[in-house]
Amino acid sequence: MASRVADAGSLDATLRELAANVARATGAEAAMVVPLESGPPWFRLTGTFGLPEGYGEALQAAIQAKAQSPAVTEPPSLMADSAALILRLGVTPQSLAPFSTTFIDRDVRRRLLSDPAYGPVHRFAREATWDTVVSVPMVYHERQVGVVIAY
User: Fold this and answer.
1) Each residue's pLDDT tens digit, 102-113
2) What is the DSSP letter of 43?
3) Are the C-beta atoms of residues 31 and 151 closer than 8 Å to each other?
4) CB neighbour burial string for 12-25, b if at least 16 within 10 angstroms, e if fewer
């Protein structure tokens, strides 16, 4: 993997390769690597493998819409709601709490489809064969730098 990553030449290519290796190693259908950033937009849904073209952008749009909505609950009911909290609050211990431990999110498709704020991802959720999402924090030198998500 290291040689392919070195040859890839860009952070996005490196994250896509990491996502592909996560999916292969775990048997997941798809994976996404989400690096956290030090300022707005706080994170980018990038580094995807096995997800349909446009899914990351649609999920990012839905999360941004959800962040504007008073419907974001605490504690969040979906991992994507946690991302909306990050957009609303910034990267804070409170907003990162759901991402700081391994999180298993079940019955995701039904919950995404029942929430109008996630309208941009409804077409993807209807066709998805996965229904469980596992999120694992990426930590470097005791600092959380992102999240790896397996579908």
Assistant:
1) 888 888 888 889
2) B
3) yes
4) eebbbbbbbebbee
